[in-house]
Please model this.
Amino acid sequence: MKLKHLLVATLATFCLSNLVAAELYVSKETGKNSNAGTKEAPFKNLQKALDKAAAGDVIYVAAGNYFGLMDKGYLEMKKPVKLYGGYTTDFSARDILENRTLIMPPHTSNGTSSNNALLNIYPTEAGDIVVDGFIFDKGESNGYHATEGKPEGVETGMLIHPPTRGANNILTVVNPHIKGTIPKGTVLVQNNVFLNGSHYAIQADIKEGKFSVLNNVFVANTMAAAEIRGASAKAHDSSLEFAYNTILFTWSRTKANEDMGYGVRAMTRIDTNIHNNLIGCSSFAGIDRTRIDSDLKMEGDRVINIDNNRFFANKQADMALPSGGGKFLRIYAEMMEDAEGVTSVENNAELEDVEALKNVINQAYLTGFLNAVYTETTDYDPNSPANQIRSMFGLNQVGTMQSSASMFANRYPQDDALKLFGVVEDIGAQAINYDTEPAN
Model:
């Protein structure tokens, strides 16, 4: 199904519930929190609108940076509502890439946001949720080393995880861009950018309903772009459609490259349809299908479709599978048709024509990623005076180990990330289609 038809069908479902919904408006530049939240008198803060909205309401958000009341660094959605960003301050026009609607806290908010994602979605009732047209970027709040792991031409040094602090004494907040638990309903995450994530881009679970992740750009995130699990004990209660997304530069958990580093994960207790994505430059694998449900019947009932995806320069594999021996089987696109434990796996391939992608990708970042290495050096002398004394007293001997990485989850430029829409026809994030806009 082409993206336009998919979006029209998906949006039609959501529009039915808009017929009786209230509309709220937010503008950082022209609004006031004491306003009524109308188009003529918008709220200033997105959190104010989220608190005011009832289930099913629609919130339109103008260009600006929104990261919580009193700049606390995060937003909370406690009721199922629909968020649309990318509007001009008078709400007369929408252009997501021109009218940047940011969720991009500064490092000064880290002290109050340490236990939260940028957007926390925890509704207590069933309903439909939309997140459409936002730029999630942790590049200003992450701690980066001043000099280490900094290839030539890359903006920052490597990402630094707690308890170590980065340059300017910044302590990274290790949480996703979006995190949530959905009891029942539908979720549509589309036309967004997820950038410079220190711990997943989207991490959520859904008990009953459909979670759709369509036409997004994910760049320079750690762990995985998306990990969405089912939360029901019944097969087929929940489903994930992950389609027309561009995922580049997904990094491992730590600079040591020991685990993680997936584009998208096929998790347990949820039917998964992964199609028409462009997944490249993963430190491990483009797709993770290694998770096995402990309930063997639930595992056997899972539906996993992986079709028509394109892969580019994933370091260890395009897809990781369980090997049966506690380790992972690494395979590339040409071997996917033989993959076991996958319902449908058709027309997956390496990206053949890379010229269009090459023209928009940040070249310094790509070169640094392809050349990235991790090294360890140890210094242990059993005959050193200190170790001889420790031996006399029955104590363990000691040594030192130093590790270094030439690059790890460095900040990727936001301007370059926005260029990744519409690069490859019918694969990955497409040019944003405003023909399917909600009425406002």
